[in-house]
Fold this protein.
Amino acid sequence: MEDPADFDLDHISLFEEGSTSIPTNDNIMDILDSSVPAVGMSFDSAEDVRTFYREYGIKMGFGTRIQSSKKGKDNEIRYFMLVCSREGKYVFPLPSELMTLPTQTNECQARISVAKKDSKWYIMSVIYEHSHDLSPTKSRLFCGNRKISLSAKRTLDLNDDARVRVNKSFRSLVGAAGGYENLSFVECDVRNFLSQHRRALGKDGDGQTLLSHFSRMRELNRDFFFEIDIDDENHIRNVLWADARSRTACEHFGDIVSFDTTYLTNKYDMPFAPFVGVNHHGQSILLGCGLLSSEDTDTFIWLFKCWLRCMSYKAPFGIATDQCRAMKNVVAVVFPETRHKWCLWHIMKKIPEKLAANQDYKNMKHQMKVVVYESMTLVEFECNWEKFITSFGLTHNEWLTTIYEEL
């Protein structure tokens, strides 16, 4: 970080997306403490700015987050704003008399705005005042400030390998630090770290074993396909593979595909995601398999694109999945011409959860199954569904209405 006391900020512009005012030398404060943000401070990277303001927030007693950012013509971020975590106004959906906790946002205006000029990042404006009390002794535990040190991660990793329970590992770290007040994380962070770490297939040499196995399969049959997604630490995040039989089957029976992630492995708790079709005998056939580190949009996009490439870019006419919104968005992106339907098994599984509160639940459940499983044509289903909805007074049931409209 450089001292901007003598720096001429008149030459810094906020580009075409910038603010309505540009700071000048007249509003540059004398910096007595380099840990306090001031107009004109420069940094080598955006991450340096975020780290600096986060540490300042910990010292003063507030949390921080990014409130907005803007890109330049090169599609790279050129400007962003860091604000107090209590910025904004949140309207709680419940009436005040039913609220157990008050809202945590206070329309706080404390913030800094940062812009990039050439290869440097400069603080363009600063607001110091907060609209709430600060908590320097607790700020390390605010959501954006919690962080597990490298030494603590190493200890947790060793304890996990030795099958030490998470709560005992956390208490050992508390004892080594001299108390809870000296830790910058809580037990929930430890559990999240270990959960993510267990999913890394690079652990215990399993990643290398998997790669070696796939390589041997490729040597035995050149049509064996596999793709591996690796993170920044060279841990395997996601895997897709399909043998020659699956790729051939997809050419003949890949028109309609079912994709499900409800299967889990025991050791890593990673979703096992098979692509399944149906052959001319009505039998299920495997068209590809995946192991996923998470079930978010980016992961599904990676998996679906790899599978599409594996199947010679032959997209299915229809695909059935569970009611995952992330998956729905991905299907629209990767398979824009494919008809997306929800899996019937997942829908029927939710009947007890959605309809059990009704007095005539047992009869209602039976009648719904009759409508779904015994309607042979579209016209017959429409007629039976209308009778079912009307007879049980379910016209305004949000779940049934949503399902009908979506399908």
Q: What stands out?
A: Residues 358 and 364 are 8 Å apart (CA to CA).
